[in-house]
Design brief:
With about 170 residues, the chain is mainly beta. It contains one helix and 14 strands, in the order E-E-E-H-E-E-E-E-E-E-E-E-E-E-E. The strands form two sheets. Strands 1, 2, 3, 4, 5, 6, 7, 8, 9, 10, 13 and 14 form a twelve-stranded antiparallel β-sheet that branches.
Length: about 170
Protein backbone atom coordinates (compact mmCIF):
# COMPACT_ATOMS: atom_id res chain seq x y z
CA UNK A 1 0.00 0.00 0.00
CA UNK A 2 2.59 2.60 -0.95
CA UNK A 3 1.44 6.19 -0.72
CA UNK A 4 -1.39 5.57 1.74
CA UNK A 5 0.06 7.62 4.61
CA UNK A 6 -2.56 9.96 6.09
CA UNK A 7 -5.16 8.81 3.59
CA UNK A 8 -8.34 7.32 4.93
CA UNK A 9 -9.27 4.26 2.93
CA UNK A 10 -12.82 2.98 3.14
CA UNK A 11 -13.66 -0.70 2.82
CA UNK A 12 -17.17 -2.03 2.36
CA UNK A 13 -17.96 -5.71 1.96
CA UNK A 14 -20.71 -5.00 -0.57
CA UNK A 15 -18.60 -2.71 -2.76
CA UNK A 16 -21.62 -0.44 -3.17
CA UNK A 17 -21.02 3.17 -4.21
CA UNK A 18 -22.92 4.54 -1.20
CA UNK A 19 -22.77 1.79 1.44
CA UNK A 20 -24.55 2.11 4.77
CA UNK A 21 -22.21 3.43 7.48
CA UNK A 22 -22.78 0.34 9.63
CA UNK A 23 -21.18 -1.79 6.87
CA UNK A 24 -18.12 0.42 6.40
CA UNK A 25 -14.65 0.12 7.93
CA UNK A 26 -12.17 2.99 7.50
CA UNK A 27 -8.36 2.88 7.82
CA UNK A 28 -5.54 5.43 8.10
CA UNK A 29 -1.96 4.20 7.52
CA UNK A 30 1.56 5.19 8.61
CA UNK A 31 4.46 5.58 6.11
CA UNK A 32 5.16 1.81 6.36
CA UNK A 33 1.57 0.97 5.38
CA UNK A 34 0.65 -0.14 8.92
CA UNK A 35 -2.93 0.71 9.88
CA UNK A 36 -2.72 3.34 12.65
CA UNK A 37 -6.38 4.29 12.92
CA UNK A 38 -9.20 1.82 12.30
CA UNK A 39 -12.81 2.92 12.46
CA UNK A 40 -15.09 -0.08 12.96
CA UNK A 41 -18.55 -0.07 11.37
CA UNK A 42 -20.04 1.04 14.72
CA UNK A 43 -17.54 3.96 14.88
CA UNK A 44 -18.26 4.98 11.27
CA UNK A 45 -22.01 4.84 11.99
CA UNK A 46 -21.51 6.51 15.40
CA UNK A 47 -23.68 3.80 16.92
CA UNK A 48 -24.89 3.84 20.51
CA UNK A 49 -21.74 2.05 21.73
CA UNK A 50 -19.44 4.63 20.02
CA UNK A 51 -21.33 7.88 19.53
CA UNK A 52 -18.07 9.83 19.14
CA UNK A 53 -16.94 7.59 16.27
CA UNK A 54 -13.65 6.82 18.04
CA UNK A 55 -11.14 4.71 16.07
CA UNK A 56 -8.89 1.97 17.36
CA UNK A 57 -5.35 3.39 17.46
CA UNK A 58 -2.27 1.27 16.71
CA UNK A 59 1.43 2.14 17.08
CA UNK A 60 4.32 0.04 15.78
CA UNK A 61 7.94 -0.73 16.59
CA UNK A 62 10.73 0.10 14.15
CA UNK A 63 10.35 -3.52 12.96
CA UNK A 64 6.64 -2.95 12.19
CA UNK A 65 5.46 -5.11 15.10
CA UNK A 66 2.40 -3.93 17.00
CA UNK A 67 3.74 -2.01 20.02
CA UNK A 68 0.51 -0.53 21.35
CA UNK A 69 -3.19 -0.72 20.62
CA UNK A 70 -5.94 1.39 22.12
CA UNK A 71 -9.45 0.10 21.52
CA UNK A 72 -12.43 2.29 22.45
CA UNK A 73 -14.75 0.67 24.96
CA UNK A 74 -18.16 1.63 26.22
CA UNK A 75 -17.70 3.62 29.41
CA UNK A 76 -19.12 2.34 32.67
CA UNK A 77 -22.13 4.23 33.99
CA UNK A 78 -20.88 7.61 35.18
CA UNK A 79 -17.43 6.99 33.68
CA UNK A 80 -15.61 9.14 31.15
CA UNK A 81 -16.71 8.95 27.50
CA UNK A 82 -13.13 8.64 26.26
CA UNK A 83 -12.48 5.22 27.78
CA UNK A 84 -10.26 2.67 26.06
CA UNK A 85 -8.46 -0.62 26.58
CA UNK A 86 -4.71 -0.24 26.01
CA UNK A 87 -2.55 -3.24 25.16
CA UNK A 88 1.23 -2.72 24.98
CA UNK A 89 3.56 -5.42 23.64
CA UNK A 90 7.23 -6.35 23.96
CA UNK A 91 9.04 -8.79 21.68
CA UNK A 92 12.19 -10.90 21.64
CA UNK A 93 14.85 -10.64 18.92
CA UNK A 94 12.84 -13.07 16.76
CA UNK A 95 9.65 -10.99 16.88
CA UNK A 96 7.82 -13.31 19.28
CA UNK A 97 5.59 -11.71 21.90
CA UNK A 98 7.21 -11.64 25.35
CA UNK A 99 4.65 -9.57 27.24
CA UNK A 100 1.27 -8.00 26.74
CA UNK A 101 0.37 -5.31 29.27
CA UNK A 102 -3.29 -4.38 29.50
CA UNK A 103 -4.93 -1.41 31.18
CA UNK A 104 -8.24 0.42 31.06
CA UNK A 105 -7.41 4.05 30.24
CA UNK A 106 -8.87 7.43 29.45
CA UNK A 107 -7.66 8.84 26.15
CA UNK A 108 -7.00 12.48 25.33
CA UNK A 109 -5.82 14.05 22.11
CA UNK A 110 -5.97 12.63 18.61
CA UNK A 111 -3.61 10.51 16.56
CA UNK A 112 -0.64 10.82 16.51
CA UNK A 113 -0.52 13.00 19.65
CA UNK A 114 -2.55 10.93 22.07
CA UNK A 115 -2.09 10.53 25.80
CA UNK A 116 -3.50 7.82 28.05
CA UNK A 117 -4.11 7.78 31.78
CA UNK A 118 -4.77 4.46 33.58
CA UNK A 119 -8.11 4.26 35.35
CA UNK A 120 -7.50 3.32 38.99
CA UNK A 121 -9.09 0.09 40.17
CA UNK A 122 -9.84 -1.18 36.68
CA UNK A 123 -8.68 -4.21 34.72
CA UNK A 124 -4.89 -4.20 34.34
CA UNK A 125 -2.00 -6.63 34.31
CA UNK A 126 0.65 -8.42 32.30
CA UNK A 127 0.42 -11.57 30.22
CA UNK A 128 3.86 -13.12 29.57
CA UNK A 129 5.08 -15.78 27.16
CA UNK A 130 8.10 -18.11 26.92
CA UNK A 131 9.44 -20.17 24.02
CA UNK A 132 11.65 -23.21 23.53
CA UNK A 133 15.07 -22.79 21.86
CA UNK A 134 13.38 -23.91 18.63
CA UNK A 135 10.71 -21.21 18.93
CA UNK A 136 7.76 -23.28 20.09
CA UNK A 137 5.49 -21.73 22.73
CA UNK A 138 6.19 -23.19 26.20
CA UNK A 139 4.19 -21.09 28.64
CA UNK A 140 1.65 -18.33 28.78
CA UNK A 141 1.48 -16.82 32.25
CA UNK A 142 -1.70 -15.09 33.29
CA UNK A 143 -2.38 -11.75 34.82
CA UNK A 144 -4.39 -10.67 37.81
CA UNK A 145 -7.73 -9.28 36.67
CA UNK A 146 -9.70 -6.78 38.71
CA UNK A 147 -13.25 -8.06 38.87
CA UNK A 148 -15.88 -6.13 40.80
CA UNK A 149 -13.62 -5.26 43.69
CA UNK A 150 -11.71 -8.56 43.75
CA UNK A 151 -9.05 -10.22 41.68
CA UNK A 152 -8.62 -13.52 39.98
CA UNK A 153 -5.27 -15.13 40.79
CA UNK A 154 -2.69 -14.92 38.00
CA UNK A 155 -2.57 -18.72 37.90
CA UNK A 156 -6.16 -18.73 36.65
CA UNK A 157 -4.86 -17.85 33.21
CA UNK A 158 -1.68 -19.98 32.87
CA UNK A 159 -1.10 -22.36 29.97
CA UNK A 160 1.81 -24.78 29.44
CA UNK A 161 2.64 -26.59 26.20
CA UNK A 162 4.66 -29.75 25.56
CA UNK A 163 5.76 -31.32 22.28
CA UNK A 164 6.71 -34.73 20.94
CA UNK A 165 10.29 -35.38 19.71
CA UNK A 166 9.25 -34.50 16.15
CA UNK A 167 7.73 -31.16 17.22
CA UNK A 168 4.06 -32.08 17.23
CA UNK A 169 1.91 -30.66 20.06
CA UNK A 170 1.63 -33.27 22.83
CA UNK A 171 -0.19 -31.52 25.68
CA UNK A 172 -1.72 -28.18 26.53
CA UNK A 173 -2.40 -27.71 30.23
CA UNK A 174 -4.14 -24.80 31.89
Amino acid sequence: LPGVQNQVITYTPTGAANPPADQTTRYNYDPNANPVEIWSPSAVAQAANDTAGTPTIDAYTSDNLLARQIVPVTAAAGGPDNTGREDSYTYDAFGRTLTKDTADVTVTGAYPAIAVTPIAGQDAGTQSYTYSPTGWPLTQAGRAVAAQGGTLPPSADNIAYTYTADGQPATVAD
